[in-house]
């Protein structure tokens, strides 16, 4: 029995039994139906269950290992990208080490798509795929837990409440992450914060870095420990967020009433919508490894934020939202090539953006616009501070 059996991804010997459990689970089959046939699946899923189960069984017939499973998922994901993404651009790959595993820490906008796109880019450029950190709050259904662990996800215990229980879970997680990178030579992905940045403001929570270091032997230098983890910042930017209105509603409710109550299995529904929804153009930027002499978690956090924010690629949607709020166009670079927004005619993109937000409740429309515009405000502030020497 392994020390990490309670949180680790499934190994090859567990793959086939897991697939059989999934095929026998009607909720799993219904989830596929809702993704593939959203209209019919919502009201009459029973008409499709037999056909879908037979199709999935056929596709999974030869799967005997985690690698086999990820090869099948790659085919699904290719079709998903074709349906929901216009372009997927990447920068910074040349600086990634191939001989040593890395801990990728990224900004967090989507529960499953953030690590999925990191995986896709690594997979298609000859790198090992990542072990993915996922909170146990997202695994409210048995099929979700099986599916995630089958796809190299490991469990973050967020249900612990007592301080001693939280500390124990944090140390356990920290040991597992370092074991993965240093001993198993497996890439790992974690988000820079617990929960998605629903307001468009990307900021690393120092507690994440403190967790990584909590299992450090007191005889080991903090800077050496961080260097051993081989942390690489990743900045992910989406042109459109399939969950923009749901996020705006949540942020608005918290700002106006002080609280927001999630519906049962709301996170599972968000996963499905995030996967199936239109995203437009996407850019992934891989930063430089954090190999400096960092004295504490705050210093690591500062460097992560610096790289993630400076490498974030703005889209016309961000600038158009800024225009709608400020009544002027921002002089900022957009897209992978960094074209100055004020130098181009974006009328077609303006019409497209207005279509995207047309059904938004007027009560939280400004909240939605701020979420899209906040990366522009962040960019302007960064460059103003840099220019003033702050």
Describe the structure.
Helix 11 crosses helix 16. With 390 residues, this protein is α/β, with parallel strands linked by helices. The mean pLDDT is 93. It is built from 16 helices and nine strands.
Strand content: 5-15%
Q: How many domains, in number, for the residues?
A: 2
Quaternary structure state of the chains depicted: single chain
CATH class of the largest domain equals Alpha Beta
Please give the CATH architecture of the largest domain: 3-Layer(aba) Sandwich
Note the run of SSEs as H and E.
Answer: HHHHHEEHEHEHEHHEHHEHHEEHH
Mean pLDDT: 93
List the helices and strands and how they pair.
Layout: H1 12-24, H2 26-36, H3 38-43, H4 49-59, H5 66-84, E1 85-91, E2 103-106, H6 113-123, E3 130-135, H7 142-150, E4 153-156, H8 163-183, E5 187-191, H9 206-213, H10 222-229, E6 231-238, H11 244-257, H12 266-276, E7 280-286, H13 297-310, H14 316-326, E8 333-334, E9 339-340, H15 347-357, H16 365-388
Parallel strand pairs: 1-7, 2-5, 2-6, 3-4, 3-5
Antiparallel strand pairs: 6-7, 8-9
Q: What keywords describe this structure?
A:
alpha/beta, seven-stranded mixed sheet, 52% helix, 2 domains, Glycerol-3-phosphate (1)-acyltransferase, 390 residues
